[in-house]
Specification:
- The chain is α+β, with helices and mostly antiparallel strands and about 675 residues long.
- The protein has a domain at about 315-535 and about 570-660 and about 670-680: DD-peptidase/beta-lactamase superfamily (Beta-lactamase, 3-Layer(aba) Sandwich).
- The strands form seven sheets. Strands 2, 3, 4, 5, 8, 17 and 18 form a seven-stranded mixed β-sheet that branches.
- Strand 2 (about 65) and strand 3 (about 75-85) form a beta hairpin.
Length: about 675
């Protein structure tokens, strides 16, 4: 019995030992295998793992449309067939050339792309096709290279220098243009190879051969189209091309916001200011690459969304009429004598209660060609002496500082300053109050007001005795109306104007002859008086809407741009009404300087005329201006019209272009048959 137990125990012990040995052997094999994988095959398996490398890539979407205030389509997208290339992570020049040669059999590049090909581009390709130019290097140079007396860069330059002109004559420039596109593409970033004038045949042939064209694809691109041609074209702005991508000077700004270097963006005015709205949400795609960096497949992460649409405050039909009026009146005025310095006019039309811009334009006439150039940005980038249109601000500042009261009179006379000559209005008016001073445009009344605001008092034949520092008091009140400060329109190149620095002429600020102002500032100033003292931010966009891919009509409203009050002027309602009455007398009074243009008009305008001395190319000239609003009792529109350098100094005013343009702009806005009801929305 004991013997049997021993045999059984021995068998169990043997089996346990065998099991332990087997487990030990299996663990040893596992450890050896792991070591083999990590040490001997680690690099190979790491490369294999790269097959699942995933890189996020974004694809552009159609840009948002732009509509006018009456929902008329203004800017839209024109779809274009396109050939796009997404390069691998580490594209090699010889592989790119091989691909370019394949594509060269299907694609004819546009002339502008072929013209971009340089001799250096051709030489780079020539070297790739001729064993990297090894035959161009001498044995001596090769020896110097091995001795590290010549660098790779030195050898390459020697090769380039030895490629002859006759060698380049044999090169295919279409191939070079394609290679140039491929070689400058950013890794794993879709880049347009050709997106203009792609023929149906080119598109079809590339599409049919995509499996032999790694990285190439066909897609639909777009370019901007405009319904109204050149009307308002400058302010609408431009978009960079696929070649331009991000503007170099703003690349860091855009990349910090998540843009890619080849993204197309608005590069001027409305397209730039509202780029974040118009650009939309790009399609997000994962790009999977193999160990060589080649694209294996793509996976859509999120669908893109077209850019949102803008609805402008501009009425494009009214805008077109304004531009036509300006051009016609400039041509008419230039026919008058002594107008050889005249070639420019500006108009800004705004809603007084909202600050919404209804129309704005700048036009420059070329006397040699008879053509007009759009200079609409000049309405906020070009400042000059505006003249008597600012006299309303002078009267209001006089009220607020206490140097003038309602109905207070001053003697309009020839002013004599010791050592400074004489100053006068265009005619001596004797004793007048502030309403008559506005109606008849008295310079003397305004000068005396300004002198007193600066702590002085006019004494015939006396010295001008003022506190120069108090000019800033006057500017403070002028600033409240938008004169001498940015209007808030939103463009970085807006100018606030230039401040005069000659203390002996500081009193000239009262008649718009010291500091310079832009047409947009004058428009903001006149709207502030028209609406009862609220300085409104000028606005060009009324709404942001959802994109509507199914038609030309805009989608649902996403955001309505509310009017913005920048400040309320210090002056009381009674003060403002007093100046409003003075402006009405300018257009309706028996001695009003603009009565001949507006007294019998049905829209009941009020405003102020202006003339000011200026210079152009060393010639003394006169600027003409008008700022006004209508109807007087419930203003719907305010306008600023400025015609700089209208005629030479020393001659009687040969034309009244500013007043005529203003009259015609009011007429274009109002429908006479409806007794002054505005045409616009």
């Amino acid at each position: 019995m004991q013997k049997k137990e021993k045999i059984v125990k021995g068998k169990i012990r043997w089996r346990l030992n065998s099991l332990f040995f087997l487990v030990f052997a299996l663990f040893s094999l596992l450890i050896l295998r792991l070591g083999f994988i990590q040490i001997l095959k680690g690099e190979a398996f790491a490369a294999q793992a790269k097959k699942t490398d995933v890189t996020p890539v974004s694809y552009s979407v159609p840009r948002g449309k732009i509509y006018d205030t009456n929902d008329r389509l203004v800017v839209y997208n024109i779809p274009e067939k396109a050939i796009v290339y997404t390069p691998p992570k580490n594209p090699q020049p010889d592989e790119l050339l091989k691909l370019a040669k394949k594509l060269n059999t299907f694609l004819v590049m546009n002339e502008k792309e072929i013209n971009k090909v340089t001799d250096r581009d051709l030489k780079d390709i020539w070297l790739l096709e001729h064993k990297n130019g090894t035959d161009l290097i001498t044995n001596k140079e090769e020896k110097l290279y091995k001795q590290e007396k010549l660098t790779d860069k030195d050898l390459y330059q020697l090769k380039l220098d030895r490629i002859t002109e006759s060698d380049l004559q044999t090169m295919d420039k279409n191939l070079a243009a394609i290679y140039r596109k491929l070689s400058t593409a950013i890794a794993l970033t879709p880049t347009m190879v050709k997106n203009e004038n792609v023929t149906d045949e080119e598109y079809a042939r590339v599409n049919a051969n995509l499996e032999n064209l790694p990285g190439l694809d066909v897609t639909t691109d777009w370019k901007r189209g405009r319904t109204y041609g050149d009307t308002f074209w400058n302010m609408l702005g431009e978009v960079t091309s696929a070649d331009e991508g991000l503007p170099a000077e703003k690349a860091s700004y855009y990349t910090a916001k998540g843009y890619e270097l080849n993204d197309r963006v608005g590069k001027s005015y409305i397209e730039e200011l509202y780029d974040s709205v118009l650009r939309g949400e790009k399609e997000k795609v994962k790009t999977v690459t193999d160990q060589s960096g080649n694209v294996v497949r793509t996976e859509t992460v999120s669908e893109g969304q077209s850019g949102k649409d803008l609805v402008l405050t501009i009425d494009m039909e009214f805008q077109a009429q304004v531009e036509k009026i300006m051009q016609e009146e400039l041509v008419q005025a230039i026919q008058k004598p002594h107008t050889d310095t005249l070639d420019t006019a500006f108009v800004v039309a705004m809603e007084p209660k909202t600050g919404r811009i209804l129309a704005m334009s700048g036009k420059v006439y070329n006397r040699e060609s008879g053509d007009f150039t759009d200079f609409t940005p000049g309405t906020f980038t070009y400042a000059f002496e505006q003249g008597s249109v600012v006299k309303g601000a002078t009267v209001l500042a006089g009220y607020q500082t206490g140097v003038r009261d309602f109905g207070e009179t001053e003697l309009d006379e020839v002013m004599h300053f010791k050592g400074s000559g004489t100053f006068s209005s265009y005619t001596v008016m004797n004793r007048i109050n502030e309403l008559e001073a506005l109606e008849r445009s008295s310079n003397v009344y305004m000068w005396k007001t300004a002198i007193e605001m600066m702590g002085g008092k006019y004494v015939p034949n006396g010295t001008l005795n003022i506190n120069p520092k108090k000019i800033e008091t006057i500017r403070y009140y002028f600033n409240q109306f938008g004169l001498g400060v940015p209007t808030g329109i939103g463009f970085t190149n807006e100018t606030a104007g230039i401040k005069g620095i000659n203390a002996s002429t500081y009193f000239q600020i009262a008649i718009g002859q010291l500091d310079t102002y832009t047409p947009m500032q004058i428009a903001q100033y006149i709207t502030t008086i028209a609406n009862g003292g609220y300085r409104m931010k000028p606005q060009l966009v009324r709404e942001i809407r959802e994109p509507n891919p199914d038609g030309d009509e805009s989608g649902n409203v996403m955001d309505e741009i509310e009017p913005v009050v920048l400040n309320r002027v210090d002056m009381s309602e009674e003060m403002l009404k007093r100046v409003q009455q003075g402006f009405w007398l300018v257009t309706h009074g028996s001695q009003g300087t603009a009565r001949g243009f507006f007294k019998n008009e049905p829209y009941d305008a009020a405003g102020k005329t202006g003339t000011s001395e200026s210079y152009k190319k060393g010639v003394k000239t006169w600027n003409l201006s008008f700022a006004g609003y209508a109807p007087f009792d419930d203003p719907k529109i305010a306008i600023a019209v400025i015609v700089p350098n209208a005629y030479r100094d020393g001659y009687a005013q040969p034309h009244s272009a500013a007043n005529v343009i203003s009259q015609r702009v009011f007429r274009a806005y109002f429908d006479d048959t409806e007794q002054g009801q505005p045409n616009t929305k």
